[in-house]
Amino acid sequence: MRVNPDDGQVYSRWEREERKKPKPLNEDGEEPEEDENAPKPLDEMALIHRSNDNELKIQEELQYYNSIERSSIEDLMLNLYDS
């Protein structure tokens, strides 16, 4: 995930790759007209990593989930299937 520091918009890797793809040609083999509402390619150098996406933070979240929340969710799922 990357964020645009100007507006705070978050973009996934998939979104960034989709915006890089060339526009498909129309039936005449020409480039389509510019659509002013179409998403523009992103400036990868202007995007920054989110501070909560570092490896240490993710490991802490996974450890918390596995130690606390996972057992609660498993109990809930078992109760839903039993009823």
What's the helix and strand layout?
Elements: E1 2-3, E2 10-11, H1 13-20, E3 48-49, H2 55-82
Antiparallel strand pairs: 1-2, 1-3
List keywords for this structure.
83 residues, mainly alpha, 2 domains, three-stranded antiparallel β-sheet, 3 strands
Please tell me about this protein's structure.
- The chain has 83 residues and is mainly alpha-helical.
- The protein has 2 domains: 1-49, no CATH class; 51-83.
- It has helices at 13-20, 55-82, and strands at residues 2-3, 10-11, 48-49.
- It has a 3-stranded antiparallel β-sheet.
- The longest helix is centred in the last third of the chain and has 28 residues, at 55-82.
- The two termini are 40 Å apart.
- The model has no long low-confidence stretch (mean pLDDT 84).
TL;DR of this structure?
By secondary structure, this protein is mostly helical. Helices cover 43% and strands 7% of the residues. It has 2 domains: 1-49, no CATH class; 51-83.
Strand tally is: 3
Helix content, binned percent:
40-55%
Average pLDDT score: 84
How many helical elements?
Answer: 2
Order of helices and strands: EEHEH
Assign the structural class, choosing from mainly alpha, mainly beta, alpha/beta, alpha+beta, or little secondary structure. mainly alpha
Biggest sheet layout = 3 strands, antiparallel
Distance between the termini: 40 Å
Shape: elongated
Low-confidence stretches: none
**Which band does the percent of strand residues land in?**
5-15%
Sequence of strands across the biggest β-sheet: 2-1-3
Rg from C-alpha positions? 21 Å
Number of domains as seen in the coordinates? 2
